[in-house]
Amino acid sequence: MLTNKQYAAVLVVDIDQPGERGGHPVNLAETTRAQLAGLVSRNVGPAWVGINRVSGKAQCLWLIDPVYADEGGESANMSLLAATTRKLGEYLDHDPNFSHRFSRSPFYTGHSPDRYIWYRQHHRIDRLGDLMKEVRTVAGDAQREPARQEYASGRELIEAVKARREEAQAFRAIAREIETEMGEDADRLNPDLIDGVNVRWVGDGRAARDETAFRHALKTAHRLRAAGQRMTDAAIIDAYEHAYAVAHREGGAGREPELPPMRDRQSMARRVRGYVSQGKTASYGSPTAKYATTSQRKALATMGRRGGQKSAQRWERDPEGEYAERRREALRQTHRRKRVMGQTTRAKIQALVGQAYVETGCTPSAREIAQEIGVTKRTVNLHLKALREAGALAVE
User: Fold this and answer.
1) 3-state SS, one letter per residue, for 151-215
2) pLDDT tens sequence across 18-28
3) How confident is the model at residue 3 (pLDDT cuts 50, 70, 90)?
4) What is the pLDDT of residues 316-325, one digit of tens each?
5) Reported CATH class of domain 336-389
6) Helical H segments across the chain, by residue range
7) Where is the composition biased (Basic and acidic residues) (predicted)?
8) CATH code 1.10.10 region(s) in the chain
């Protein structure tokens, strides 16, 4: 048994290209012969080739390093087997709905007129990964490159994520300010508005040219959308270049113009248009901003978890040490602050109940007190109960 739901030792491809009668390799379709020759040239040809005596169609078998699956018939290796079968089948123009990993027996000795004539090529056992790589080479497909490690250490990863977060926060602040700057009245009252551009400054006589240009391009895109006009690359780039020129003229401070190349400006225009049209106000960022990959997020989570474990170890190793004492002092301050907050809330409730009774002759409900003070109804009930037990609530 070479294949079942949880085990496979062969790879089967059913070639659906009709050839000529006879059952000999020369009777295969010309394209099929050329494709098989390409596989043989890379030393990944099939171990067995079966040819139908009547139609000239064929089946090919590859002996593979056995792969296994769980009870449900699933595993990473089974997925690799399916992908390799699909890739080989696409290359050989197979019938994907016929064999379903089953094949005719190479050892059949009957006399059926449409039986397959089998030709053994070799006894080599192929690894699926190597087979997939060579098939991609023969088919001219791009190889899958392993993910490159961008950071040399976990600390470097954390610093990069911190820098990215700070950059995103800065551009998020820009996005939130854009709507405030959209009004014409605000523009007329803005002393930094020069030739329609709100120039941003980083010091005396020194303008933030890139930030000024980006803000103006973003504002222009918002206005185009509000007016029902197209947010074209040309319009956004023109706004960016105009704002940059104004900022450089007014606050160049002896610097040379450093306008980004046209390719970067086109990328900026596409991103700005996407931000405005999709409403991604929280996603403004520089054109070179990147996102953390899954492995990087896992690394950050792992390091955060290990940091907590190290903190717990310090507690256990030296419960009376400086670290533990600092943490206890922080907890004491937190508890003290919460206790004062609770006392203040109780005093507010007591005063509110007394004032309402003096003015109206009745006490407010717990819901009304909660809405007035800004706490939950449960908190109000707890404070009222404590006040009654202490005899501090003169009215009932």
Assistant:
1) CCCHHHHHHHHHHHHHHHHHHHHHHHHHHHHCCHHHHHHCCCEECCEECCEEECCEECHHHHHHH
2) 888 888 888 88
3) low
4) 778 888 878 8
5) mainly alpha
6) 30-41, 76-92, 128-139, 154-181, 184-189, 209-226, 233-251, 262-278, 294-317, 322-360, 366-373, 377-389
7) 313-323
8) 336-389
